[in-house]
Fold this protein.
Amino acid sequence: MRPLVLILALALLAPAPGQTAPGLTPAVRLAWWTDAGFLTPFAVSILGPAGVTRLTLIYDTLVWKDGRGVIPWLAASWRASPDGTAYVFTLRSDVRWHDGRPLTARDVRFSFEYYRRHPFRWIDTSMVDGVEVRDRRTIVIRLARRYAPFIENVAATVPIIPAHVWQAIEHPEQAQTLAAAVGSGPYRLVEYRPESGQYRLVAFDDYFRGRPQVREIQYVVIPQERQMLAVQSGQVDAGVTTTRDALALFAGHPYLRVLETEPLSIARLVFNLDHSLTGQRGFRQAVAYALDRQRIADTATRGPGIAGNPGVVPPTSAWFNPGVRRYPYDPATARGLLRELGYIDRDGDGWLEQRDGTRLVVGLVAGPTADAEVIRQMLKDVGIEVRVRTVDPATRAQLAAEGRFEMLYTTHIGSGGDPDYLRTWFTGAAANEFASGSVMRSPEFVRLAALQLAELDPARRRAHVDRMQALLSDEMPTLTLYYRRFFWVYDGRKFAPFATQGGLLNGIPLLDNKLAFLPGGR
Amino acid sequence: MTDLRAHVARYLVLLAVVAVVNFFLPRVLPGSPLSAAVAGSGLPVLPSATLDRLREGYDLNRPMREQFVRYLRRLGQGDLGRSISTHRPVSALIAERLPWTVGLAGVAIAAAALAGLAIGTWSAMRPGSRTAQAAGTLVIGLGALPEFLIAMGCIIVFGVRWRLFPTGGGMTPFGGGGAARWLADVAWHAALPAVTLVAALLPVFVLVSRNALAPVMDATFLVVARAKGLRPRRILWHAWRNAMSPVLTLSGLRLATLVTGVVVVERIFAYPGMGMLLVEAVARRDYPVIQGILLVSSVAVLTVVFLLELLAYRLDPRVREQT
C-alpha cells in the first residue's frame, strides 16, 4: 500500500505534460538583429558575435569564464609547462555528447587537428603545434611558441567537437543538418529557420553541470532599433541598446531589469600613417587636442560616457595604464601644433591653409553616424575642414585595406579581456592587410608586442603592456573617442544574466553566458 | 506564330544579357566578401591564415575570367551556386524567401489595385465634384508619405499602443497548430506590412485608373450607350475595356518589381522575404546570392512584361492593329 501512496504522491507533485517543474523556466526568447548561420563551428556566421556566442550553448570549451574570470569546464584542471610551450589538461570524466557517447581526450585532439584543416574562423589557433593524448582524460597541447593568452583566448574559446561526427566530413561548412550539430553543451539545437533567423535550443538534461534551469532558449531576429519596443511589448525576453537611457527608462519596472556590461566596444578614429597629412604625428596629436572626447562620449551614449584613452585600453580594464599622454580637450594647443606644421589661417576666413595657400582639408570615412558630424564640427573650430564620406561597413573595410583614407571612424568590440589585441591591431604581424594604415612603425612597439606575447610572468607582462600603451598614446595611430557598454534589458522573472569578466570568449559583451541558464548561475 | 517566336527570341537574348550583367553588377560594388567579413566580424582583424582560407573558399583567388566561366557553366546547369556567407545553395535560399514576398506583395497589390480601381472609377464618374477633388488631394498626400513613415506609424499605433498586430516577423516563432491556424498566424503577421504596402501603392492606382477612365467617360461611344439606355454597370464595363490597359500594365510591373521592391517594408518589419535577403546579401557582398536574386527578379519582370503584352494584344484591338 505504501509504495502505491508514494507513487500517487509523486504523480501529483510531478509537473503535468507541458508544464515545467517549479524553479524552472520553460523558455527564454532572445533577440538579435541578424541571422547567425547554422550552429556548427564551420557554418556559423562570423559577421558579428551572435553566432559564436550561440555556439557556446551547444559546444563546450576546455575552460570557461564567469563574472570573475576563467574557471574549469571540460578540463577539471590544467597546468602550463615551466617553459610555457605546453599545457596539460585533465578532463572531467562525466561529460557526454548529446548523442550519449562520452567525451574523451581523443575528441580534444581531433578538434585541434581538424581545425588545422578547417579553421574555426573566430580565433587563430595556428600557435598549436600538436596535441598528445596521455590517457582517456589527459591531453597535452604543445605550442609552436609561447603564447601568454592561451588559456583565455584559445582554451576558453575553441569549441571541442566530436570526432565520431566530423571525422568523415570533408566539407564541414556544408554539413548543415541537426545531426551535425552534436555538442556537449547544455543545449541541443532542435530547430533552425534560416529564412527568419529563428533558433530553438532545448535543454540537454544529461549535462555534466546539471540540468539547465531554462528549458528552452529561442532566438529571433528583431531590428536593433526596435528591440526595446519588442522587450516592452513582451515579444522577446531580452534586447540590447548601447545608450544609457535604458537605465532610466526601466528603473523601477516590476520585472524588466537592465544589465550593464563592461565597456567592451570601442569607437575610434584610425589615421592613415602613410598619408602625407595624417602621417604627421603633430597633426594626429592636434586632432586629439581638438576633439572633446568626453562630450562626444556623453552625446553618443546619452549619459555620462567613458572618454577614450589615447593608450586604447579602457580605463575599466585591469590592464589600463593611467600614465599615458592624456590629450585633454584644448583647442589652443591644437592650433599651436598645427601652426608648427605650417597650417595657418592666412586669409582670415577661419579655415587653416597649407603653405601653398590651399585650404587644409582632411577626409573622414565613416558609416552613417552622428559622431562623424560632431567630429566635423569640432575640427572646424580649430580651422580643419573635414569632408565626410559615408559608406557601408564592407566599403569602409575595403578602403582601409587599400589605404584609401585619411581618417576612418569605426566602432567594434574586442577591447576587453587579454590585452594581446594591442599587438594584433597595431603590429600587422598576426593581422592582415585590413590593419594597414594604422600599423605602428616603432620598432620598440613591435619588440614589446612580441615580448608580452611570450611573457608568462604577470608583472613583467604588465610592464610591457604599459609601455605599449604609452607608445600608442605618443604615436597615435588611432584615437579612441569613447567606449561603449551594452545595456541589456531582460525579463528578471525568467533568468538572471550577468556580465562575463572581460566579455564572453575574447571580449564579446553579450549576456547569453551558459552559466546564466544552469543551476547555481554565475 | 512567327511573330510570337521572334518575340520570345528577343526575350531570350535579353535574358542572356541580364545573366552576363548579373555577374559583373555585384562586383562593381565597392568592397568584397572578404572586406564584408572583416567589417562585420565584430573583431577588427582576422588572422591572416583565416583570410587566405576565406579567399580560397570564395573563389576570389581565381582570375575574374575564370570566375565568370565557372559562373556561366554553373548557370547552364541550372546551378545558382552557394552562398558565400551561409554556404547554402542559393536556390534553396531563394525558394525559402520567395513565397513570403510573393504572398505579401501579391495580396498588397491585389488590394491596392482593387481599392485604387474603385476609388479611381468613383472619382472619374464625378468630374469636378468637391468630394472627388478632396479624395484626389488625400490620395496625393498619402502618396507623398515615405513607406518607412507609414510603417513606423502602423507599428506604433497598431502594434505597440493597441497591440492588435505583431510588430515584426512573418509568423509566430515556433508556433504550432494546423494549416488553418498557420494561415491565420501568417495573415496576422502580414497585416501591418500589407497595410503599409497598400497605403504606398494605392495612390498610383487611384490616379492611373482615374486618369485612364476620365477621358473615356465623355467618349462618343459611351454617349451613344447612355442614349440607348444601357444600364450603368454595362456602360462602366465598356468604359473599362477601353481604359484598363494602363492599369493592367501598372499592376504587372508592380508585381514584378516588388520581388525586390519591398526592401524597406521587409527591413522594418523583419519580414523574411526576398527584400531582406537582398539587403543581407549586399551587406555581406555575397555575390552568388545577389546574382541569384537579380536573375530571379529579372526573369520575373521579363515574364510578366511578356504576359502583359500578350494580354494587351488579346484584349485591346488597337494593339492588334498596331502590331
